[in-house]
Amino acid sequence: MTVQQTSPRGLSADQAALRLAEHGPNSIPAPRPPSPWLRVLVQLRDPMIVLLIAAAILTASLRDFTDLTVILAVVVLNTTVGVVQEIRAEHALAALSRLAAPHATVRRGGHTTVVPAADVVPDDVVLLQAGDVVPADLVLFDAVQLQADESTLTGESVPVEKDPADEVFAGTVVTRGRGTGTVTRTGPGSALGQIAALLSNQRPRATPLQRRLAGLSRTLSIVVVALSAIVAVAGLVRGLPLPSMVVTAVSLTVAAVPESLPAVVTLALAIGAHRMAQRAAVVRKLPAVETLGAVTVVATDKTGTLTEGIMQAERLWTESGAATATGVGYEPAGELRPPGSGAVRRLLRDVALCNDAALRPPPADPADPADPADPADPADPADRAAWQPIGDPTEAALLTLAHRGSVDPDELRAAYLRTHEVPFDSTRKRMTTFHEQPGSDDLLVIGKGAPEVMLTPDVTPYGDIARAKDVAAELSEAGYRVLAVADNTLPPGAPRTENGLRLAGLVAITDPVRHNAAEVVASFGRAGIGLLLITGDAPGTALAVAERIGVHDGQVVTGADIDAGQDPTAGRVFARIRPEQKLGIVRAWQAKGHVVAMTGDGVNDAPALRRADIGVAMGRGGTEVARQAADLVLTDDDLGTVEAAIEEGRRIYTNIRTFLRYALGGGLAEVLVMLIGPLLGFAVPLLPGQILWINMLTHGLPGVAIGAEPADPRAMRQPPRSPQEQILGAGLWQRIAWTGALIATVTLTAALWARSAGAPWQTLSYLVLGLAQLGVALALRRPTPSGGRRLRFLDLAVAGAVAAQVLPLMLAPLRDLLGLQAVTGTEVLYAAALASVPGLVTAVSRLGRANRRRRSRWLPPYRPRSARR
Fold first, then answer.
1. Which residues are catalytic?
2. Which residues have C-beta within 8 Å of that of residue 640, sequence separation ≥ 6?
3. Which residues of 733-762 are buried (b: 16+ CB within 10 A; e: fewer)?
4. Which of 64, 227, 709, 714 could form a disulfide with 59 if both were Cys (CB 3.0 to 4.6 A apart)?
């Protein structure tokens, strides 16, 4: 692709539109979905379906068309449900991918603006800074200490230094510095697009939960096949024909193993991901949906998560006086009280020049998503109606402060041209810029950073440093984030140095605590989830926020404390934490056996996000690096959304266990009936067609409906499950055993009564066995938060299954197909009464366990020290 020379002003809107039409969107084409026939073949490879097909071939060869019809109906139903669910899951994941699409900062028509990455075109001028994912292949014409992580392309984990005229490639990550470049290749033509083309046919792997359940299914298959073989051998010993017993054994095997389990799990995960997206949590990795339910610790950043993320520079201090700023958010409107003196204007000049941010005004019409003033089109209309920061929010707050002090940053930047800079990084905690002095050959040096770094004899030897330290400490204790600012003038030819500066003043910045932060922390406590506050701010700032939200436990652990060997699990509030220490904190809590969710938004959070069991990135204010490293992206940057996501994870895991109890209990009942029935004189308690019909009805829509049940209202008032808990642990296999035994007991009781009364015992056995399982499904129905009972999918599914269970008794052709006999109304009522017993016992048992849980007092694993004393 030949790239034309592009003006530093960038393309015009018309030029960008023409290139977009010519080259297409800057996106990698989605892989072609498999054909319907391929989807069907994939479903038919399932071991249980293969077993059914083998049974169908066998029954066809024996001319047993009755059982053949029922078996084929089961195959068609299961295959259809599987194909439909696969398509729905693909659509849901595609929608989530669109929600998570990154944006790019470009210069068009001389103005810096943000556009969707898909709208980047060849010859666009793209601005890069630390934390950005490069949207397309670029050639740099400006680079300041720029490094790029190219591990996605080369596998090399060490960042690569980039200079002007170097290329940077799509999908790589800017880890340091800033730069500007011209787009050379987009979409499929980019380096990332070429690699993606090689991977387009790769299929996603099963989640860990699905693999564990697949292992469970294999184990169950072996056990049930062995039991079915025993049934077949017992029948042969009694003189029953071989073909009939083979079909019976195969049908019993299929009925006893929940072959719909993969569909239920996939549906539960897909519905969970969709529900999370509706609640502002975009799932990037599907296993995160289930893992969220096991979270025991949430480690969260302060800024933008516990706080509003709208930085406001409220107070400033100079040696000649102090002032307070008025105004809301990043809107320049406001004023300083009292009005700025010469020293204050000097301080405002410095914070405007030593600054890489910009302010974006709201569009002329916030309701118009096509307004060119805001091409990024934030989802929240309130965001579209407000001034937005471009770049670091703290630096944007400093620009807003300058405006409120009647200092125009744009005019200053045009007058004081920047010649060199030493960018801010989290280790140095400072930034330095060098500027030409208007009308002079001198250089203006400006530094800003943390007070403990700036207010030292080496860095700032000139000024009342002792007084400045006292003021900074007072502001920090009041909950402010404090920046110290200093400057100096260097004569021509003097070496450029960051030290030897003169104190200009202090700026106190605040980030209001979110209105729901304290409520969310309290909810975590009730759910047995500990919350850790981790920030790079000063201890006083961290302590002030912690006390407001109820996290404070009497101490603050600093980065220096950790360096000195303090155990990170000894505290819950962490201040002045470096990036590598965040990673150490996560590892320490994991070493204690906890499942850790980590929230973050910056480049320095990415290692901890990747290490955590669940990485949660901020979608609005966070960097693309953080989003790439995370499992979950919050589009509203609200910690309350994490609470909702954890509740959703608990719902999914609970529903899967509920389905296992229901399906395995019913399967066990069928096996017990077929094993014990002959001992009671019933040669063949149920015919193969009857078993398969019951299995199709009970494991079909009712099973899927259990996977879609809403969350338990008590879910967030219980401790998290143990990470070591097996899928059938915590007493589930015992409940499966007595549920199956109870259903088998009432079924065999119905058969004994019917035989003694001269009634069709096999038909009543069929009726009781199916209805009893459906009654258990209703008994396992989740209670509603209001305590009432609203009609839900499970109710409709069970009602439909009951109708289909009774229908063969009314229709002679279907009755003959299944080998059933006509029964009287009294016999049906008797069967229904017996079938209701397992459901009633299950409901009473669940109610008793719920009452015992309410009476018991459990202690959350992370109590404050004050509560332990």
1. 301
2. 514, 516, 519, 520
3. eebbebbbebbbbbbbebbebbbeeebbbb
4. 64
Does residue 189 sit within a domain?
A: no
The domain containing residue 629 runs over which residues?
281-307+513-637
pLDDT of amino acid 749: 92
Are residue 530 and residue 438 in the same domain, yes or no? no
Q: Which of 321, 318, 319 is nearest to 338 (CA)?
A: 321
For residue 25, which of 91, 95, 104 has the smallest C-alpha distance? 104
Q: Round to whole Å and give the CA distance between 226 and 431.
A: 72
3-state SS, 247-259, equals HHHHHHHHHHCCC
Give the chain's end-to-end CA distance (angstroms, integer): 71
pLDDT at residue 121, as a whole number: 92
Three-state DSSP class for residue 484: strand
Q: How many domains does the chain have?
A: 3
Confidence of residue 251 (pLDDT cuts 50, 70, 90): low
| Residue from 327, 298, 302, 300 nearest 313 by CA | 327
**446 pLDDT exceeds 70?**
yes
Strand, helix or coil for residue 143: strand
- Where residue 808 sits, what CATH number does that domain have? 1.20.1110.10
Query: Cα(782)–Cα(799) distance, rounded to whole angstroms?
Result: 16
Please give the Cα distance from 274 to 368 (Å, whole number). 27
Residue 345 is part of a domain; what is its CATH number? Answer: 3.40.1110.10
Question: Dihedral (C-alpha) 380, 300, 472, 389: value to the nearest 10 degrees?
Answer: -20
With bands split at pLDDT 50, 70 and 90, how would you rate the model's confidence at 158? Answer: low
Distance CA 218, CA 262 (A): 12
Q: Token pair 């040696």 is at which residue?
A: 319
CATH of the domain at 546: 3.40.50.1000
Q: Does residue 331 share a domain with residue 452? A: yes
From CA 762, how far away is CA 148, in angstroms rounded?
73
Residue from 66, 140, 656, 129 nearest 423 by CA:
129
Residue 326 sits at φ, ψ, to 5 deg, of: -110, 160
Answer yes or no: is 557 within a domain.
yes
781 with 840, same domain: the answer is yes
DSSP H or E run through 309: none
| 164, part of any domain | no
Running DSSP on this structure, what letter comes out for residue 716? G
Q: Which amino acid is at 525?
A: G
Residue 403: helix, strand or coil by DSSP?
helix
Instruction: Looking at the structure, tell me whether residues 448 and 536 fall in a common domain.
Output: no
Question: In angstroms, rounded to a whole number, what is the distance separating the alpha carbons of residues 50 and 259?
Answer: 11
Q: How confident is the model at residue 482 (pLDDT cuts 50, 70, 90)?
A: very high
Residues 682 and 828 in one domain: yes
Q: Give the residue from 510, 539, 572 where a domain finishes.
A: 510
Is the domain of 702 the same as that of 817?
A: yes
Nearest CA among 652, 825, 663 for reference residue 257? 663
- Residues 568, 595: one domain? yes
What gap in Å lies between CA 124 and CA 15, rounded to an integer? 9
Which of 476, 510, 544 is the C-terminal boundary of a domain? 510
Exposed, middle or buried: residue 179 (CB in 10 Å: 0-12, 13-18, 19+)? buried
DSSP states along 274-292: HHHHHTTEEESSTHHHHHG
Beta-carbon contacts of residue 500 (< 8 Å; ≥ 6 apart): 458, 459, 461, 462, 488
Q: Is residue 57 one of the residues assigned to a domain?
A: no
Find all residues with CB under 8 Å of 761, minimum gap 6, and list them: 682, 750, 751, 752, 754, 755
Please tell me the distance from the alpha carbon of residue 708 to that of residue 140, in angstroms, as a whole number.
51
Assigned token pair, 829: 């009522």
Q: Is 131 left (phi over 0), alpha (psi -120 to 50) or beta?
A: left
Shared domain for 699 and 810, answered yes or no, is yes
d(CA 689, CA 64): 10
Residue found under tokens 């996000």: 609
- Quick check: 772 pLDDT over 80? yes
